Amino acid sequence: RGKKILSIILSLTMIMMCLTPVKIQAATKTATLVVEEAKAVNGDTVEVKAKITDNPGIMGAVIKVEYDDGLELVDSKSGEAFASMSMTKPGKYVSSCKFVWDAMDMSSDSVKDGDVLILSFKVSDTVDIGTELGIKLSYADGDIIDSDLNPVNLTIKNGKITVVDNFVAGDVNDD
Questions:
Q1: What pLDDT, on the 0 to 100 scale, is given for residue 147?
Q2: Three-state SS for 5?
Q3: Which residues have C-beta within 8 Å of that of residue 107, sequence separation ≥ 6?
Q4: Phi and psi dihedrals of 82, rounded to 5?
Q5: 167-174 contacts at long range (C-beta below 8 A, 24 or more positions apart)
Q6: Which of 17, 101, 108, 153 is the Cys-Cys partner for 61 at CB 3.0 to 4.6 Å?
Q7: Sequence-ordered list of residues with C-beta below 8 angstroms from that of 90, at least 6 positions apart, any chain
Q8: Residue 119 CB coordination number (10 Å)
Q9: What is the sign of the dihedral through the CA atoms of 17, 18, 21 and 26?
Q10: For the stretch 60-90, what's the b/e string if a residue is b when 16 or more beta carbons lie within 10 angstroms of its beta carbon?
């Protein structure tokens, strides 16, 4: 009689396991976002680009931009990597503002590496020569998603603008 009860319990357990849905966690994809480094003279306006590599098919993103005192964000535009998505700019350009991208439909042909965000900063006249002014991008978990609404992780390398005494575009050795 004990063997019969044990057999029934095991059979019920096996049936329950077969009927219970198993949720399979999708592998989280990772892309890399790199913010350029630039040089500028006091009072100049300089463009800094954020570039993505290994784009797994991002269809939605919220990216926060923070920058040091001495910089004023004066303009922004979406780059070609996210050109198939609509970008919503922040209402006001202040340090710690958010940029939002969203796509209703996107084909695999639209998935690209390249510029995501192009930021134009004016460098204050009062910043000392040699000062490095940081530009930091970040996001919250779940703010970057693919076409299946699965989260995408970003490895971010932040950038900076270095204030120089006299800078000529294309000068690679500062002479």
A1: 82
A2: helix
A3: none
A4: -110, 20
A5: 167/39, 167/40, 167/41, 167/44
A6: 101
A7: 97, 98, 99
A8: 24
A9: positive
A10: bbbbbbebbebbebeebebbebbebbebeee
Low-confidence ranges of the chain (pLDDT < 70): 1-3, 5-28, 106-108, 167-175
Q: Which pLDDT does position 39 carry in this prediction?
A: 96
SS3 track for 47-107: EEEEEEECCCCEEEEEEEEEECCCEEEEEEEECHHHCCCEEECCCCCCCCEEEEEECCCCC
**Terminal CA-CA length for the chain:** 95
For 141, phi and psi rounded to 5 degrees?
A: -55, 130
Q: Give pTM, 2 decimals.
A: 0.78
For residue 24, the model assigns a pLDDT of 46
Kindly give, in sequence order, each residue whose CB lies less than 8 Å from that of residue 123, ignoring residues fewer than 6 positions away.
40, 41, 42, 43, 44, 45, 46, 70, 71, 133, 161, 163
Under a CB-based contact definition with an 8 Å cutoff, are residues 98 and 117 in contact? no
Maximum alpha-carbon separation in the chain: 95
**How far is Cα of residue 145 from the mean position of the Cα atoms in its chain?**
10
